Amino acid sequence: MAVTAMLPTTGTPRSTAATGGEALLWPWWSEDATNTVRLLLDEGDMAAAKAGHPLIDACEELAADVLAPGRLVMLCDSGTAALETAYAALRLEPGSEVLVASASFRSTVTAMLPQGLVPVLCDTDPATGGIDLDDAAARITPRTAALTITHTWGRPVPIDAVRRLCDRHHLALVADCSHAHGLAWQGQPVGLVGDVTVWSCGTWKMTSGGKAGLLATRDRDIWERALVMGQPKHRALARVRDERLRALAVTGVGHNRRASPVAAALVADHLRRLPHTVATKRERQTAVEQLLARHLPALAPLPEPAGRTAGALYKWHWRAAPGHPAGTVVQALRASGVRAGLPARPLHEAPLFTDPGLASHLGLRVQVPDPDSFPGTAVLLDQLVEIDTRDMYEPLPDDDPDPYDHALTTAADRLAVVGPLSEEG
Length: 425
Description:
Elements: H1 31-43, H2 54-67, E1 72-76, H3 79-89, E2 97-101, H4 106-110, E3 118-122, H5 133-138, E4 144-150, H6 159-169, E5 172-176, E6 184-185, E7 188-189, E8 196-200, E9 213-217, H7 220-230, H8 233-239, H9 243-249, H10 261-272, H11 274-295, E10 299-301, E11 308-310, E12 316-320, H12 326-335, E13 340-341, H13 375-381, E14 384-387, H14 403-418
Parallel strand pairs: 2-3, 2-4, 4-5, 5-8
Antiparallel strand pairs: 1-9, 6-7, 6-11, 8-9, 10-12, 12-14, 13-14
């Protein structure tokens, strides 16, 4: 079969029958997608070194339709690669400062370091899980050139307020939507707000190609620079109009961040089933939170994100009541079969931002912040339990009991045996 016919057309959810009734753990892909990958292996065209590849081109078009209507989209080989390309394509001066929340994922910050940019960690708004805009505004200096937002765990930041802050201070806006596939804030897809927007499509994101990422922008100049800085020669030459950039594309500038056709087929499969994914996750969230209120009132889910009009949470977060240390709660949940853990610690606690000399080993520029200047981040993470939701991507089979009914009952019994505690441990 020719590769032009390979793009999966459906994203049919699997049945638990394939695993003997056990919950499937995301990600999985449709039979159409797995057949497409087999055909690619048979044909042997895994490099996609020519000017275009039908699977990659079709995936980029589909991503624009689903995530960022009207934007130019580029598929990369990881979300980190998309971020690196985004920071480079903005053409910020080395030494420029970029505002970013300390509670962001590490790659949101570290991807800027090779460009000579300086991350300025900001506090977190505990109501949104994203950057505290008042704190960010207070950290602006004459060297500040950009602000990066992350819709952490699928909880949108107020994008109108973000845009106003950036416009008022003439800052470039990078939007990391790696937790936000299909998310909208007050009717606006979150992929439309940034000067450049990226999504991770790796590991167990809601849209995953195993290892892939997406970059989107409305600015053709940014897009063309991104092509030259991140894509192979023939790909860039086929799309770039600017003559100076075309001259650079002849040799490239040292990076090839092109995704494989396999990743394109897998990402496209998940994009096609994204409405099903979102609806299923929201349905399961509602059901499990009702069971949580019934069996474990000492745990309360974080409030629904304000302003969210579409999308689903990438991960769930429940706050433990005083006297029930989060670590103890996690142990009880895990022993009962719930995929629970503690959320990642904030970046201002990481060695990169606590050891003044560490970054200099690689010639990187990093500010070491005052560790006491992140009270909102501490409030957000206090007593928080994280549920990875990888078992929440399909509806329960008809007439089957909800496994969380038994799991949460068992966890409550375990915690009752332990009893309320006043300290972690």
